[in-house]
Amino acid sequence: MLKVETSPDYPVEEGHYLRGNDYSPVAVATILIYDYGKIPKEIEQLVRIGVEAGAALSGTIQTENIGIEKMVCNIIGNPNIRYLVVTGPESPGHSTGDAIISLLRYGIDERKRIKKTKAPTPYLFNLPVEYIERFRSQIREVFNLLNRGTPDLIRKAVWSCYQESPVKFENYTLYDIGAYPEDPIRAKLTWRVTNPVAEPKDNEERRQKEELQKKMEMIRKRLEEKKGNQ
Predict the structure, then answer these.
(1) CA dihedral over 19, 60, 172, 107, signed as positive or negative
(2) Which of 64, 131, 138, 190 is deepest in the core (most CB within 10 A)?
(3) pTM
């Protein structure tokens, strides 16, 4: 069975996660609806259980844009990860879990918006398309345990993914299929966009924004000229 080593600086993107066995074929993403300083023990327990059960990475994810971008970077940096467990309470404001599942199932459109998701701002502006498509190809299956991820269920999901022989988990037949047959990608966010909510969502919005910027620049120059003539 093919397994590969990760780079010395893996994982490249910081976040609220624990690192487990790099050769494990599964990662666990727990949706976070709380501020980082107010994370309840139940959520911390789910993160810890993911690693203790054998996951390569287990952590929280808060937003449907930059949060997902960071997760994509860390997963494509480890080709051994082929499965993703999404759990925790779904975010009523961000619909982050729905966005992750929709990304893997349907991809993105020409505006880098995740298709068929309920999330309000599911734009992945800081990732090249090839990173996104690698993520979608590398992850063989995503398990939707939103709002029902008990500790025992998460343990069973993770355990099922690294078995040598096929086992049943709910409606899935799972086993360790080995690493994705391409090199790790050392992916870092471009940070070109730090506030996806404020970005233009189509050509008309972009045109309006550019016109406003031009007008503001003209006003600025006139004010400077006026001060220079005083």
Answers:
(1) negative
(2) 64
(3) 0.84
Which amino acid is it at 80? N
Two structure tokens written together for 187: 């992916």
